[in-house]
Amino acid sequence: MTILTRRSLIGVGAGGVLLSGCDRLAESTRANDFVAMAEKATYGWQRLIGGQTLAQEFTPADISPVFKANGSTDPKDDDYRRHADAGFANWKLRIDGLVRRPLSLSIADLRALTARTQITRHDCVEGWSAIGQWTGPQLGPLLKAAGLLPAARYVVFHCADTYGGEISKGGAQSSGRYYESIDLNDAFHPQTIIAHSLNGKPLTVAHGAPCRMRIERQLGYKQAKYVMRIEAVDSFSHLELGKGGYWEDRGYEWYAGI
Amino acid sequence: MDTVANVRIDTGPPPGQVYYRHRLVTRLCHWINALSLLFLVMTGLNIFDAHPALYWGKYGANPDHQSRWFEIGAMDAPGGAIRGVTRIGPVMIDTSGVLGTQVEPDGSVIDQGFPDWVTFPHNRDLATARRWHFFFAWLFILSGLVYFVHGFATRHLQDEVWPRLKQLRPANLWHDIVIHARLTFPRGAADREYQVLQRLAYAGVVFVLLPLMVLTGLSLSPGFNAALNGFLPSLFGGRASARSIHFIVMDLLIAFTAVHLLMVVLAGPYNQVRSMITGRYDTGEEPE
Fold first, then answer.
1. Which of A128, A131, A199, A249 is the best substitution to test chain B (most B C-beta atoms within 10 A)?
2. At what angle do helices A37-50 and B126-153 cross, to 10 degrees?
3. Distance from CA of A24 to the nearest CA of B (A)
4. What is the spatial distance between Cα B238 and Cα B192, in angstroms, rounded to a whole number?
5. Which CATH number fits domain A54-250: 3.30.420.140, 3.90.420.10, 3.40.190.10, 1.20.1300.10?
6. Which of A53, A222, B18, B174 has the CA that lies 20 to 30 A from B124?
7. ipTM of the complex as predicted
8. Which residue ranges make up each domain of chain A?
9. Domain spans of chain B, in order of start
10. B81-132 pLDDT per residue, tens
11. How many CB pairs under 8 A join A and B?
């Protein structure tokens, strides 16, 4: 009871003034644009000191007993359901956009490529983390095989799932289709792989079957699942709300290295 | 003799009263730091609400019950109500209305980690909280670097903050504890420098807590971790542990700030706050 009384007192007193002041600040476009400078600073600084260093890799003993699945865990999209029912036998991963020779890979093709296996930690933007072993071909050699054009600056991952989270933040104007994008530094990073296996088993639907991205120096929302198309672009401003990703269109940083 | 005395009077108040205590850089860093910490804590609590649980080890997520040592949540109570519950290790505490649940203006009870009046923004908004958190993290680190370089160069840190060896004698420590317990702080010449408890508190914050906050914070960044190939989180026993320590050190900084503000009030808020704005501090007259 005393707690409730104190709360309501704060609500009408000095706390009320503070709250409305904070609201004005948090909703101010200018203030938010100003603090967004931090993202550029972090991106520039981490690229400067990071180069192509590897994310920490762990031993099999470190693997999380249960790897939490988050975001879309069971897409309801008709196309995706049809592929899932057919065991992804007809799934094609296209690599196109600003490339000389667009590629189209079946899951069998993908599995036949030289794979990298890495035990890494997945850091979710929410604060939790999980360690798992991922296997799949590196993205870099595939982009080279496709003949990436000099105009390309980013790589976009188009996904098969529609996600309905947080439509409040401008989401109503977007299709809700999941997508993500990274720069070429990350695209050619040795640990950036198109994973088809988790902990030695083919990906389950919850974890992004038949293939998903691993971009090990960034947060979980960059690890696009259900990837069906990898597009090289010079800009992502024409896609959805123009911020370069599903969560980016909802206010999150494009550079998720922090 | 007369002329010397006259010169003294003409150049300002006699020694033992007002003197220039805080340099400009120290004062600027103090206020930037205060503002940054306020925003870092308020945005940090908003970020924490996105996953209000802490773990020990290299990883930690919902299925990892064994390593989860702290959590805030809501539990169903009889009659369709919900109760706020905070768990620290084996201890469960009913924190309804403060942590876990909160009462809305219309009287309804909702599921909420930290109450909205201590978070920034005050609604649950991870994206906005993160942007503001990292802006103030940059400001905090840059002003901290300026403070350290300036503090060492001017010997502020070595001479004025770091405890003197002879101050650490048990008798002197006890004497300072008694002074604080009786609120009979030294005035006059003896008040021209910090006593031992104040030095220990400031040195602990400057050399231990604030650097720990930066290092555990950086341990949470996958980009920074890759740059050092996982060195930082390993230093703290893993990323989940680093996140726990980040939270615990925040609590210690809040505790320090509460005592710090209390001491400012008890030691004379006008003089204390003025000295951190203008630099000029009045030591007052020596008793007797």
1. A128
2. 70
3. 10
4. 44
5. 3.90.420.10
6. A222
7. 0.91
8. 54-250
9. 55-113
10. 899 999 999 999 999 989 999 888 888 888 888 988 899 998 989 999 999 9
11. 160
